[in-house]
Here is the input.
Amino acid sequence: MLPGTVTQAELDGQPVVLIGTVPTGYTVVLCPKGWATLQRWKLTTLRVARGVLYAAGKGRAGGFAAARFLLGSSGNCTVRHRNGNPFDIRLENIVAISFGLLRQAKIEAARGRGYTNPDVSWTDKAGNAHRHSGNPIKDPSAHQRIAETLRDPDSLRRNLKGLF
Here is the structure.
């Protein structure tokens, strides 16, 4: 697609906006609501730099990370794409995952399966005994919560349809 070109289209029965990035011409897929948000902030130029998609505009030459801007997320999370395509920034395709949840998943992976949080006892220098009871492991685990967050929203709706 030519750089800077904006086209209305339909993808999977949903209206989308296709935009050519500057200078490469890669095609970016946006939902109409996301495109309206970028237009409201005058961020109508999309470009790829250092492997990240940026939304820039007049007076904002550096731009903002487009997916993070659309989610309105702070700097304490990472943005992931449910379908794995970094050029598909429809609101239903992008999700913010906190660094704390990612850190907890890393800790759980290091501990391995079957880990139980043990009670800890110790004696200080004065001879006083102390005891700390281990908190129960969270259920669902961090890995399960991340997987549920990244799950395709349509399949999630289909799975829940019979329950409600």
Notes: The chain has a mean pLDDT of 87.
